[in-house]
Amino acid sequence: MDKEIKEGLVSIVGEGNYTDHLIDMVSYSYDASEHRARPACGVWVKKPEQVSEILRLATRKLVPVIPRGAGTGLSGMAVPLRGGIVLDLSHMNRILDVRIEDRLAIVQPGVIYDDLQRALKPHGFFFPPDPASGKVCTLGGNVSTNAGGMKGAKYGTTRDYVLALQIVLPDGRMMRTGSKAMKSVSGYDLTRLFVGSEGTLGIVTEITLKINPEPTAHSTAMATFDSLEDAGKTVIEIMHSGIIPSVLEILGRHTLQAINQNTELNLPEVDAMLLAETDGYTQTETDYQMQKVLEVFRKNKPKEVAQAASEQEAADLWKARKSAYAVLARIKTHFVIEDVTVPMGKIVDLLKGIEAIAEKHSLMIATYGHAGDGNLHPQILYDGDDGHEAEKVEEASAELFQLAIDLGGTLTGEHGIGLSKAPFMTLEHDPVAMEMMRSIKRVFDPNNILNPGKMALEG
Amino acid sequence: MDKEIKEGLVSIVGEGNYTDHLIDMVSYSYDASEHRARPACGVWVKKPEQVSEILRLATRKLVPVIPRGAGTGLSGMAVPLRGGIVLDLSHMNRILDVRIEDRLAIVQPGVIYDDLQRALKPHGFFFPPDPASGKVCTLGGNVSTNAGGMKGAKYGTTRDYVLALQIVLPDGRMMRTGSKAMKSVSGYDLTRLFVGSEGTLGIVTEITLKINPEPTAHSTAMATFDSLEDAGKTVIEIMHSGIIPSVLEILGRHTLQAINQNTELNLPEVDAMLLAETDGYTQTETDYQMQKVLEVFRKNKPKEVAQAASEQEAADLWKARKSAYAVLARIKTHFVIEDVTVPMGKIVDLLKGIEAIAEKHSLMIATYGHAGDGNLHPQILYDGDDGHEAEKVEEASAELFQLAIDLGGTLTGEHGIGLSKAPFMTLEHDPVAMEMMRSIKRVFDPNNILNPGKMALEG
Questions:
Q1: From the candidate CATH numbers 3.30.70.2740, 3.40.50.2000, 1.20.1050.10, 3.30.70.890, the one assigned to the domain spanning A332-406
Q2: Which of A421, B106, B190, B399 could lock onto B96 through a cystine, CB 3.0 to 4.6 A?
Q3: Which pLDDT tens digit goes with each residue over A177-186?
Q4: pTM of the predicted model as reported, rounded to 2 decimal places
C-alpha cells in the first residue's frame, strides 16, 4: 500500500482499524462466489464522517474502494477485482431507531438481518425480505443487492421497503435520499437507484426501512409430482387461484436426494416437490388460502399431498428446504449457484431447459427455488480441479442465462450481477439501456473508484 | 408554429392528428392545478415509433415536448410552461396483454385506470394504487407521478407495481427497462427512476404492471372525535395494533360541513372523523382486524363509533369521503390542494399546524386525507379574484411545506412536484441530492426539451 494512503487511512480510522495483514487480505479476497482478488488494505469504519474522509482520500489518489458487509454475496460483488481499499462496514452495526407508529426502522448498514428481526419481534413487526443468509448477511448488503428470499411472491424484495438512505459519494460529499414518510414523490427516486447498485454509486451509511406487522397464523403443505410438467402447471394454476401463498417453493430430484443423504428427513425422491405456506392474522384466513392451494395440488396428478399437522411437521419441511444450498455444496468440490428468474407461466420451460442443459453437458444441476415468483436456483455441482469440468460449467451457465432471457426472464432475481453475470448483461439489456446505466455511473463516480469492474459498467 | 416543424409533425401523425387550433391550445394549457400556459401545437400519437420520430424532430429543432395523458395532475406537470408540442398519449389506450399466471398486465400509457380494473375484474385481480381520479386518469400519468390513493398504507403506490417500461428518449432512441419477471436485480433500477419523473426524462410508451388477486371480504367502520389530538392519537395507536387497515382516512370539520351542505349524508360535524376499512379473503380475517381498529377507536375518547352494518352503509361512508374534493371545490371560486405527508407519529402536529396556519392567515383550509400513510390533503379555499387572498394562499402554502419538512415529512406524497412545488424542492433535498437529480436529467435529456421548467431541475 502506498505509504501516504496508509498514513491517511490510519489517521482517519486509527491504527487498530487499519489492516494490510496477509490473513485479512485473504479474507477480503472472496465472497460466497467463486471469484477471488486481493485488496491492498482494509479499514473498519464506525461513522459516516470516516467514510467521507476515506473516499476523499481515495478520490485524490484514484485508488479503488470496495464496500463490504458480511461478504455473503453470490456474484462476486464484494471481491476487490482491482485491489484497493476494502471499506468494511460491519462495525457500523447499530439499530438507530425503531419507530412503530411511523412503521419504520433506522439502521446502520452493518446491522445483521436477523438482529433487526429480533429487535422488531417484541413489537410484533418484521422486515419481510427474508434472505437465506439472514443469520449473517448485513442490511447494507441487502440494500446493495436488493435482497429477496422465500417470501418474495407475497412480500416483495428489499426495494419495496427502503424509504430513505444516507449516502457518501465518491468525492466524500454526503447526501440524503427519499423520505421518512411512507409515501413521497418528491424528485427523482434516488433511493431506489441505489438499491441493487452493488456499491458502485456511493456508500450507504444509514438506511430507513419500512416494516410490517407480522402475520400470526400460518399453514404449510407439500405435494410431490412425478413430472416437472405437472409441478410447473401447479404453480401456474396457483397464480390463477385468487390468492398468493406467502411461500411457494420447488425442490427438484437431485436436491431431494442430497437432502436425504445428509439428513434424517427421508423425503420422497420424486421429480419435484412443491412446498407452500399461507399466512394471515386468523387460522380461518390461512386455512381458506391453503384450501385453494390444496385444490390445485390435487388437480395436477400429485403423487402425494400432505398438510403439516403440527408446527414441528411444518418446521421439518422448511428445514429441508433451507438445507438445500448447504447439502448440495458438499456433494462435489465446487459449485456455482444461479438465480435465473422467469415469468411464472414459463416455469415448466425453465425447469425442462435446465434438465436439457445438464444432460447436454453431463453435469449435475440440482434445482430448487422460489416458484411463486419465478426465481429458481440451479446449483451446478462439479469438480473444480478438472479443467474440462470447469469449462463445461461455464458453457452451461451461459446457456442458462440465454434460456432465462429467451423465456422473457432475467439473469438474476436476487443475487445480483457482480462479476459472475457482468459478461451477460447485454443479453438482457439493450444498448441504449446499457449506455444510460454507464452514464449514471459516471455522474456519481466519474473516476470509477467505487467497486470498479462490476456490472459491466465500463463497456 | 414553425412551418417546418408543423409539416414534420403532420407527416409523422397525419393531418387529423395534428392541431394548433385555439380551442385545443386552450384545453392543453391547463391541468387540474392553477397553472396555465399554452403550447404551440398538439399531436395525438398511436405508436411508439411516432413518438420516436417526433422526439427526433423536436431535438433537431430544440422545441419543448410535453407528454400528456388525461391532464388530471394537481401540480401543473402537464402545463406547457415554455410552449412547444403537447404529445397527447390518450389515444395509445390499448391493454396489450393480461397474463394472470405471470401476475402482470401490459398496457399502453393512455389506458384509463378504471379500464384496466374492469379488464382485471373477471380474473379476480386488481391494480391496487387506486388514485381518486381513477375514472379518468391514465396509467401513463400514474407512472409519471407515482400515483397513490386510499389503499396506500397497505398496498403501496404505483412504484411498487411497475415491473418494466418501454421508453423513448429525447433523441428518439428507444429502450426497455426492468423485466417481466416478478423479481430482478439486473443493473440499475432505471424503471423506478422513471416512475415519478413527470415526463422529464423520456416518454413512457409501454408499461408492464404487477397485479394482485383482489381480497373478497371487507369491513368498514367510523369514529368521530371532538379533538384533533384524540383522532391523531388513534391513528398512532392503530399503527401499534399489529394490523394494517386497507384504508384509514381522516376528514376534518370543514370537510364534513361541506359534505353535509352538498349531500344528504348528514354527517356529524366534529373536529375529525376517521374512516377505516380492513380486508381479506374471509370475513373472520376482516372482522379480526376491524376488532383491533374498533378497540383503538373506543380507547381514545370518541364521540361516536359505528361499524357499517350493510354494504350500503359502507358505500355511503366511502361516497362521503370521495366527495370531499369536489364539494370543497364549489365553496369558493378558487382552491389549492396540497398533499403534504409526514411520518404517522406526527399526524397530530401536522393537523394542529394546518389549523394554526389557517388561523394566522384567516383562510379556510379544509383537511382530509390518507391518515394511514401520513398523507393529508389540506384544501385551501379562497377568492382568486381578490389579489390579497391569493397572496395569503401563497404564503400559507409555503408555510405548509415548511411545516411538513420540519416534521420529517415530504412536500408531496402522491401529487408530484410539477410547477407548484418546484420552488420548494430545496427545502426537502440537500444541495448534493439536487445536483445529482439535475445531472441525471442532463444524462437523459441534455437539451432540456422534455417538459422543461418542472421539478426545479434547471437550478
A1: 3.30.70.2740
A2: B106
A3: 999 999 999 9
A4: 0.97
